[in-house]
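Structure request: Stage V sporulation protein D, Candidatus Nitrosymbiomonas proteolyticus.
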Amino acid sequence: MNSRGIKVFAWLTLAGFVVAAGSQARLQVFRRDAVLDLGEKSGRFLVKRVEPARRGAILSADNRPLAQDASAREFGLIFDDVPFSRTFFMELSEASGIPASEMLQLKASGVRTTFWREPLTESKAKRVEDVKIRWRADGVSLRRVAERDYPLGIAAAGVVGALRDGKPITGIEVSKSKTLEGHDGLTIGLTDSKGKFLPMRIDPRTKTRVDGEDVVLTLDSRLQLVATQALKEAVESNNADQGAVVILNPKTGDILAMANWPSYDPARLGRPTGSKERFTDFNPNYMAALEPGSTFKILTLALALEKGVVNSTDVVQCGGSLQVWSNRSVRCDLHGGTRAHGTVDLEKAISKSCNVSAATWALRVGSPDFIEFLNRSGLMRKTQLGLPLEASGQFVRDEYAKGLQLATFGFGQSMTCTPVGLASVFSALGNGGVRMEPRLIAKVGGRDTKEREAGRLFSKETADQVLGYMESVIESDSGTGKSLRIPGYRLAGKTGTAQKINRSTGTVEGGGYVSNFVGLVPAQNPQALILVMIDNPKAGKYYGASVAGPVFVESAQAVVRLLGIPPTPGKDVVPSPKASPSPDIEIRSTKQQGGASN
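Returned structure:
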C-alpha cells in the first residue's frame, strides 16, 4: 500500500472512532434518559441493586459490642459462566466447605443459577475469591450480606433484644430500631457484561446507603456476666420460676448490670435457655411487678423519720403480733421458739426484721402520706428505661380494711413494684436522699443522654441514719444478713421474703414466695446498689439471706474488684460467720398478716 492509501485508511479509521464515540456520547449523555427509559420498559437491561445499610451496633459502657453486624458473603454459582472441570469444583469445595458432589449434581440437573442459604465467613469467602480469580470463573458470586452477632449471648439478651428474620422483636433492638436501622442504598442503571454499572448510565433515582447509628448502654459487660452467672446458679439450684438482678450507681442512676434468668440465645431464637419460662423475651427486671417484702421496711422507717412520727430513741414492744383491725393481726415469725422480739429500738428492728415495728411505723405515717410517698417515689410508675413492655408498680386501695393494708405496706406486702423501680428508690439512700432517674442508654448516635435528678425523697440526715441501720443487718452478729459479709468491706443491706398472692384463691395460701436482698457497696459513700429478686423458689429454702443473698455476695465482690473500690479503713479482713440464715418471710393467713422476716 502506497503512502496515499495509508493516509486514507488512517483517516477512515479515525472517522470511525469519532462516529462511535459520538454515538456513545449521544446515548450516554444527550439521550441518557431515553436509554434508561427504554431499559426500564423492556425489563431486560435496567438493573436495580440494593446495598443493605449496616445496622448500628449496641455497645456497653466499657465499649464491648453487645450487638453488631457481622460481615458475611452469600455464595452462589452461575453454571454457564464457570469451568466444567472436576478439579475446579474440588478446589471450590475445599475453599467453601460445600461438597463438590452437591455442586456437580446441581449443574447436571440443569439448574443455571443457585445460591446457598448459609452465608460464608469472610475467611472462606477470601479462599473462594482466590479460586475464582485463578480459574477466571466469572460465574462465582459472593454477595455481601449482614448477620447480627451478640457477643454476650444469653447474658445480655434480656436487655439488648434480638432480630428474627431481620426484624427487631424485643429489647433495645426494638425500642431504638429507627436509630439503629439506617437506610438501604439503591443503585439503578445499565451494566456491562461483568455486571458493573456504567457510570454515565446511572438513574437519578439512585440513593446512597446511610448506615445506622450506634447506641451505647450504661451496662458494664463484666458485671453483667458475673450477675447473670450468679443468678443462673441461684434460680436453678432453688428451682425458682425466674430471677432478676439490678446493679446501679446511686450517684448517677446508671444501670451497671440488669440480669435475668431464664434467658435465651438471641442468635438462636426459639426455646429459652433455662426451664419453665413462659416467654423467651420476658425480663422480670422491668416487665414484672413483684412484692418487695421485708426489704421495704427500710423505706418505711426512712419515711417515718422524715415525717417526724418516729425518732432515733423510739422503741417498740414486740410481743410477736399486733392487732390492727377487728380480729386481724400482723405477726413476726418464730425466732428461737417465739415470735416476740421484746423491746426493740430502730437498729434492732431493722437487723431483726421485726414486722410489728414496721407495721407500727406505717400506721404512724398514716395512709394519705404513705400512698403519697408510693406515688412520689416513682414506684407506681414506669421507669422510662427506653425498653418495650415496661411494667409499673401497683396496689389496690382497700377502703374496707384500710388500717390492715397500711400495716402490711410497712413490710412490703399489699403492693407490687418492678425490681428496677425498687432499686432506684433504694439508691436514694446511697445518694444523700436524692433519687436519680435510672438510666440505661448513655449515648444515641454519639449524642450523650443526660443524667436526671428525680427529686429528693429524704433528707441527708435521714438517709445516713437509715444507712447505718442497714449496716447492722450485715455487720451485727445478730443481723439477718450476717452470713453475707465480704472481708475487708463494710456493707449495708436488707434481706426479705414476701408471700405471693395465689391468683386462684385470692389468698397467700399456696401462692409461693419472692426472696429478696438489697445492699449498698460499700456502706460509706456507696458506689453501687445491688438488688436481687428470686421468684417462687421451690427447693425448700425461701429466706432472702439464703436464696438471694449468695447472688448479692458474688455481685458485690465483682463490684469492688472491677470498679476498684478500696477496702474500708479499719475493717478487719475476717470471713462471714457460718450461721444458718434468719427467717425473713411475712406470713399472712385469713386471720393474721405478717410472719417471718429477714
